[in-house]
Amino acid sequence: MENLDDKAAMPQATQTGRVKKTKKEATARSGVICLLVVFGLFWFLGQGMGIANMLKTIMNTAHDLLLNTVFYLMSICVLTGAIGRIFMEFGVVKLLEKLLRPLMKPLFNLPGVASLGAVMTFLSDNPAIISLASDKRFSTYFKKFQFISLTNFGTAFGMGLLVMVFMVGQGFFWEPLVGFAGAFIGCVVSTRLMQYFVVKNYPEYLEEEMNPVSVSEEKNKDEEEGKSGFVRVLSALLDGGKSGVEVGIAIIPGVLIISTLVMILTFGPSANGEYTGAAYEGVAILPWLAQKVNFIFEWLFGFTDPHLIAFPITSLGAVGAALSLVPNFLSQGWMDGNAIAVCTAIGMCWSGYLSTHTAMLDSLGFRELTSKAILAHTIGGLCAAVGAHLIYELISIVI
Fold first, then answer.
1. How far, in whole angstroms, is CA 157 from its chain's centroid?
2. Is the separation of the CB atoms in 115 and 149 below 8 Å?
3. Which distant-in-sequence residues (6+ apart) come within 8 Å of 247 by Cβ?
4. Helix or strand run (H / E) with residue 376
5. How far is CA 8 from CA 13, 21, 70, in A?
6. Which residues pair with 143 in a beta bridge?
7. b/e string for 237-272 if b means 16 or more Cβ within 10 A?
8. DSSP for 26-51?
């Protein structure tokens, strides 16, 4: 009997050994591929920039992003978090929910309260939506699939005021408004598409509440409303600001890692054509690749010069950096009214989403959906640009 049992156990032991061997081989292959990709990327960058300059540029870019971008975004999060908490404390959120529900539901499939996020991001930047979303009273209005799509919805209006004011300052007036209309179209596409991806992967999120209000929370809410106005204002400001600091800390990894890579692949050497190791130098491979398919962008966006591709590509990492390209483009005669409208639309809609989407979804607790959000927003940004181009052409014909 013992011999029979041993013989019966042998195939199972052999199969287990094969499974372990397969897993080890898969791990070894993935490790080799990872090393090849990492060393291949550093070899490519180091060959053009020099190893020392490449490392200095990476460190200087990350350091500058931390000081001048992350802390700037953190300050925005603190201020918008405080303002948003004030609005929620004194019923502004409920008012927006009632007034804008007829508009928000058919267009974005979101509750009316989501419009507050659009206003906050338009006045500031993408992470402002996280300051609102982190508040439990705000999130109670959403189903889970709607709540996750807030990253796409809020990003589409990020830094909108800054972009439009900057374009007006360049001497264009109605073209930025056309760009805003294009960004609106892109927002609808991106938000709806993200909701579709979420429901497809997690059907239960279609009906699942994001953050149901418990009896104890309702009791605490009643107690809060019974306090004096001064105490309520002070508590709301401090609690909202504290949540903003937490959000600012949460976005640091995504901004530093992804933005640094995008900047190095977007920008070229210094003004004299040499590499010095300064921040924001790079190999400019993304604009070079875009120029190879410029005919597509000319057909879709109406761009008349291949250099204009640098604006949407730079907007992937930071729309502020993209705006810095505009004065030079205008002085070179590369930009016209159509380009202003299209760049306003795609700059506002994308507004550095590659560097913020990862951090935003990570802070909301849905990191696994980052790729879906990026895909949806990429399509949304392209639709924004195409929409702005078509609207501009239509207005030009009418005028």
1. 10
2. no
3. 74, 77, 81, 127, 130, 131, 134, 363
4. helix 370-398
5. 9, 21, 62
6. 209
7. beebbebbebbbebbbebbbebbbbbbbbbbbbeee
8. HHHHHHHHHHHHHHHHHHHHHHHH-H
Q: CB under 8 Å to 97, separation ≥6 — which residues?
A: 111, 112, 113, 141
Angle between helix 115-123 and 160-169 (nearest 10): 40
CA gap 349, 180 in Å, rounded: 9
Tokens of 44: 């490519």
Per-residue burial over 7-21, b = 16 or more CB atoms within 10 Å of its CB, e = otherwise: eeeeeeeeeeeeeee
pLDDT (0 to 100) of residue 214: 46
Helix-strand-coil percent breakdown of the chain, rounded to 5?
80, 0, 20
What is the residue-level pLDDT of the chain in tens, covering all 399 positions? 455 455 555 555 566 666 566 767 777 788 888 889 888 888 988 888 888 999 999 999 889 888 877 787 677 778 777 877 787 777 776 776 677 778 888 999 998 888 888 887 887 777 777 777 777 777 888 888 998 898 899 888 887 877 888 888 888 889 999 999 999 999 999 999 999 999 998 898 888 887 654 444 444 555 555 566 777 788 878 877 787 787 677 667 766 777 788 778 877 888 788 888 888 888 888 778 777 777 787 888 988 877 788 788 778 777 777 777 788 778 878 888 999 999 999 989 988 787 677 777 877 778 888 889 999 999 999 999 999 999 999 998 887
Q: What is the dihedral of CA 187, 190, 196, 202, to 10 degrees?
A: -100
Instruction: List phi, psi (to 5°) of 251.
Output: -90, -5
Joined tokens for residue 19: 């499974």
The residue assigned the tokens 């600001």 is 241
Which tokens is 201 given? Answer: 């992967």
Name residue 386's amino acid. Answer: V
Using CA atoms, how far apart are residues 213 and 275, in angstroms rounded to an integer? 57
The Cβ-side half-sphere exposure at 389, using a 13 Å CA radius, reads 17
Which residue from 105, 198, 209, 207 is spatially nearest to 151, judged by alpha carbons? 198
- Angle, CA of 312, 317 and 318, to the nearest 5°: 85
Give the H/E segment covering residue 219: helix 215-225
